[in-house]
Amino acid sequence: MAKNVLHFETREGTGKSVTRKLRRDGKIPGVIYGRGEESYPITVDAEEFKNLISHLRGKLMITELLPPNGDVFRAAIKAIQKHPLTDEFLNIDFQKIHPGEVLHVKIPIIIHGTPEGLKMGGILDHIRYEVDVRGPVEKLPLHMDIDINHLELGDAVRIRDLKFEEGIEVVDPPQAVIVTIASPRRVEEVAAEEEGEVEEAAEGEAAAEETEGKG
């Protein structure tokens, strides 16, 4: 079976007691919805889903879903709920994809190379790891690759520098920075500014508390 195919089963029960038992049995509860269709609850195997996520790391989160009796179909993984402490998968939302459908998704951004600016003491600041886009599913890339070998001190790659096929709408602000090469001095200045802001805020809170105490 291909790595990008995930088996699922429909489920009848809902509620916390049902979902807890499913997780104890190595299953993850989820839901499938689609344009013009009613949503329905499902379960997937936890280990199989972990393997799928590992396979999709750094790629567009689209997979193929295979029911026990039926035809395989494509779906986007729209939301994953995880336990805040254990990272256990708690719930998954899938959106069924129809041919030609326009999707609103986040495309992973992968940088390649060693910037020239690092040789001059610069610091690599990778700010954005995804780009928010909307477009026909057939035109959506699995990921966006950026060559950063040419970047020198002060240079940056912005959202507007990314090239997509015609028909893809970029939702993020075009001036938003993806990656930049900052000079050590600028990094120190920013750190000092942030430290000063924290100290000013603390002094303001202390003054407010003192005023309240006198009142």
Summarize the structure.
With 215 residues, the protein is α+β, with helices and mostly antiparallel strands. The chain folds into two domains: 5-98, Ribosomal Protein L25, Chain P (Beta Barrel); 104-182, RNA Polymerase Alpha Subunit, Chain A, domain 2, CATH 2.170.120.
How would you describe what is shown here?
With 215 residues, the chain is of the alpha+beta class. It contains four helices and 14 strands. The strands form three sheets. A seven-stranded mixed sheet has the order 1-5-6-7-3-4-2, with helices on both faces. The protein has a four-stranded mixed sheet with strand order 11-8-10-13, with no helix packed on it. Strands 9-14-12 form a three-stranded antiparallel sheet. The longest helix is centred in the last third of the chain and has 31 residues. The chain starts with a strand and ends with a helix.
What gross morphology would you assign?
A: elongated
Estimate what percentage of residues fall within beta strands.
35-45%
The radius of gyration over CA amounts to 23 Å
> How many structural domains can be distinguished in the coordinates?
2
Helical element count?
4
The unreliable regions are: none
Output mean pLDDT. 86
Task: Let me know the number of strands.
Answer: 14
- Structural category is alpha+beta
Span between termini: 73 Å
How can the largest sheet be summarized?
7 strands, mixed
CATH class of the largest domain: Mainly Beta
Q: Give the spatial strand order of the biggest sheet.
A: 1-5-6-7-3-4-2
What is CATH's topology name of the largest domain? Answer: Ribosomal Protein L25, Chain P
- Report helical residue fraction: 25-40%
CATH-level-4 superfamily name of the largest domain:
Ribosomal Protein L25, Chain P
Q: What letter string, H or E per element, gives the SSE order?
A: EEHEEHEEEEHEEEEEEH
